[in-house]
Design a protein that fits this description.
Chain lengths: ~375, ~350
């Protein structure tokens, strides 16, 4: 099996599996309990928090652990919106952000959605035109479907100049770009373990010290009252172990990008159409294939044992055309229906890519057979 | 039949297609399960509404049980265009359409043939109760399913030879109870699931309500007798079909039946049951399974799915055919399919004009 869907989820490295196995044996108790069993869990939980914090240049005290990236985005957006009157976001956000914003809009916030036509992110000047006090910017760093990199550091400067608040969805940036929240100038940053070899049930929201973060769930006072519920120590240990591998992951960037370029060049030569060029991460290629529905091509390649996807995975088993590609190409709707996302990770080898190219050649030839 | 490699199984989530897949799996075939998502039910709360998430789940569970891949493909646009829109238009024109014929021909099997090609599958299997047999002239013949009560050959007359060449009907030789038994024996998760509805996208049978939910008006109008006397009013022509007795809302004066619907005036003409019997029909848009017969012949003609079939002379004419029954038939209904059989064999069919 050749796995080319790393933007959806990443294989579990041995170090993560081992750490979680050990935690399952040792740290089953409630980390809030004051007895020895509870302390054993607490110790592992806090060590994991340290590792997550270290990987983004943060202090552990400012990291709120959550049950995944979607919860981190909900918390960072809804938890910081108090006192804001306007919200600026992009048209290509992940549903975790887009739907949180929709909810705030329903509550009366005025919302502006910046366009990302043809994969070109809005300029900091364009963003600045919409900024002011009581403005809240909620925006992604790296697009989940195209890898498009938004100039977050420059957005952060603009936000500071205009006294606007900034939430960054960094779920796809973690492990793909170096992150240093101490220098970034954002107010909150959401992370997900699943994109860096950790379990899907772990995420985190970094929050600038001194800001009030309102919980989105009602319950106990865990995580300093910012995220109720017994922390999932097991998953957090996996998250911490995955964060410890981020340097290794980042060191593979050039090699992975070269493999991405290789498969992309081959597919473009076979008639595929490019959906997003630079600026983007080297981990992903988003292409549309004339004469194919994306889900059909994904299924045909699955039968060849190549795993990839049409875009954001969806729970119903029914794939809607990509909202991201729709928004990037409003005048070329066919692209979204025919789009396929090929995403690579540090485990991807040259051999994988050669086999994937051969599988694409076999499958694509059937269109006109 | 060409060499069999991979087989695509059309999986609705119902018992029949699940057992069809299980039987092929037992026989050792390389299978891939495909569920077409055709329609999002709206405003219908009953179990049995079509393409419900639980049906997709049932199809997926069966495929997991059999250890075969399963994919859901979205064909809602094609279903609306080729099945639902014509269905609505037919009712508005005062006819009683049979959408399963065009669904099988235009949406399901045509599309699945294309999917099969893209999946490098040589064959397509469905849970239909029908059989295929190769004749001496090398063409395939479409035959009734062994189970008289479940036989679905009526819906399949429109399939061209090139589609038949790729089709497998694993249930053709079985009865429904044998199918359920096979399902239990093979551990199919939904072996005891209830039958699906005949008209999958209108499970409550209220066509007029369905049509108005689709944003269409069906004309209300008068209920009149053959002499033109107004006997009452009705809420929409789509509530009526030829031969219908219930739902007319006419008090007294003996039992009356729908004889005819006049779309231009939205009049529903009613009368005695004896007026429903006719000897002749014309069918259009005919398809002949193994080629158009050269001359008139005697056969058996079914005028609706639940019709037993009646002896008749059949005369091919233009792109249709004429039928003269030996005995008058009750409620020959425009829009329904007239399907011609000789013994178990489907010779062809068309739509009643």
């Amino acid at each position: 099996m050749i796995y080319l869907d790393h933007h959806a989820a990443t294989p579990t490295p041995d170090a993560v599996r081992l750490a979680m196995g050990e935690a399952a044996a040792r740290a089953w108790a409630n980390p809030s309990s004051t007895h020895a069993a509870g302390r054993a869990s607490r110790e592992l939980l806090e060590a994991a928090r340290e590792r997550v914090a270290e990987s983004i240049g943060a202090s552990a005290a400012d990291v709120v652990l959550t049950g995944g990236g979607t919860e981190a985005c909900n918390l960072g957006i809804r938890g910081l919106a108090k006192g804001c009157a306007r919200l600026v976001t992009s048209e290509v956000e992940h549903p975790a952000v887009a739907k949180s914003v929709d909810r705030l809009q329903g509550d009366g916030l005025e919302v502006t959605r910046l366009r990302v036509l043809k994969g070109q992110p809005p300029s900091p000047d364009e963003l600045a035109r919409h900024l002011g006090p009581q403005t809240f910017v909620a925006i992604q760093w790296v697009n989940h479907e195209t890898g498009t990199i938004l100039p977050i550091d420059r957005y952060a400067k603009a936000c500071q100049e205009h006294e606007a608040r900034l939430f960054v969805d960094a779920t796809q940036a973690l492990g793909k770009l170096p992150i240093d929240v101490s220098a970034l100038g954002a107010d909150a940053v959401a992370l997900a373990a699943q994109k860096i070899g950790g379990p899907a049930g772990a995420g985190a929201c970094w929050i600038r010290r001194g800001l009030d973060l309102e919980p989105v769930l009602d319950g106990g006072s865990q995580e300093r009252g910012r995220r109720p519920g017994t922390p999932d120590t097991l998953s957090m240990v996996g998250f911490g172990a995955a964060c410890a591998l981020i340097e290794t992951r980042l060191a593979q960037r050039q090699r992975v990008a070269a493999l991405r370029d290789r498969i992309e060049k081959s597919l473009l030569a076979q008639g595929a159409v490019q959906n997003a060029g630079p600026p983007r991460t080297g981990t992903v290629s988003n292409l549309s294939f004339p004469g194919w529905q994306g889900p059909l091509l994904v299924a045909a390649l699955d039968l060849e044992e190549v795993c990839l996807s049409t875009g954001a995975a969806c729970s119903s088993g029914l794939q809607e055309p990509s909202a991201v590609i729709c928004a990037m190409y409003p005048d070329e709707q066919w692209r979204a229906g025919s789009a396929v996302r090929i995403s690579l990770g540090m485990e991807t080898s040259q051999g994988d890519i050669d086999l994937a190219i051969a599988s694409f050649e076999r499958v694509l030839a059937r269109r006109d057979a | 039949m060409s060499e069999m490699k991979r087989v695509l199984v059309a999986m609705s989530g119902g018992v029949d297609s699940s057992v069809a897949a299980a039987l092929l799996r037992e026989a050792g075939h390389d299978l891939v399960g495909v569920t077409l998502h055709l329609w999002d039910a709206d405003g219908e709360q009953q179990v049995g509404r079509c393409c419900a998430p639980e049906d997709r789940d049932d199809a997926r569970r069966t495929c997991e049980h059999l250890g075969i891949p399963h994919y859901v493909l979205d064909e809602r646009d094609a279903f609306r265009k080729h099945v639902v829109d014509p269905f609505v238009a037919e009712y508005q024109a005062g006819r009683t359409p049979i959408p399963c014929v065009s669904c099988n021909r235009t949406v399901k099997l045509t599309h699945l043939a294309e999917v099969a090609r893209r999946f490098d599958a040589t064959h397509i299997a469905t849970g239909h109760y029908a059989r295929l047999e190769r004749a001496a002239d090398a063409q395939l013949r479409l035959l009734r399913g062994r189970d008289d009560d479940k036989d679905q050959s009526y819906f399949l007359f429109g399939l061209p030879q090139r589609t038949l060449e790729r089709l497998l009907f694993p249930l053709g030789e079985l009865t429904k109870s044998e199918v359920r038994e096979a399902g239990r024996r093979l551990g199919v998760p939904n072996a005891d699931k209830a039958e699906s509805q005949e008209l999958c996208f209108v499970p409550d049978g209220r066509v007029n309500d369905f049509i108005s939910r689709q944003g269409n008006q069906t004309q209300s109008g008068a209920i009149v007798d053959s002499a033109g006397t107004v006997l009452g009013r009705h809420e929409g022509v789509a509530n009526f079909t030829r031969g219908q007795r219930r739902g007319l809302g006419l008090g007294g004066g003996g039992t009356r039946y729908v004889l005819r619907i006049v779309p231009d005036t939205a009049e529903v003409i009613v009368g005695d049951e004896s007026q429903l019997y006719e000897r002749k029909l014309s069918a259009t848009d005919a398809h002949w399974v193994a080629g158009r017969p050269m001359k008139p012949f005697h056969g058996e003609v079914r005028i609706r799915y639940r019709h037993r079939g009646a002896q008749a002379d059949v005369t091919p004419r233009g792109d249709g055919f004429e039928v003269r029954f030996d005995e008058p038939q009750r409620a020959i209904t425009p829009g329904q399919a007239a399907v011609v059989y000789r013994g178990d064999e489907v010779i062809g069919g068309g739509f009643i004009a």
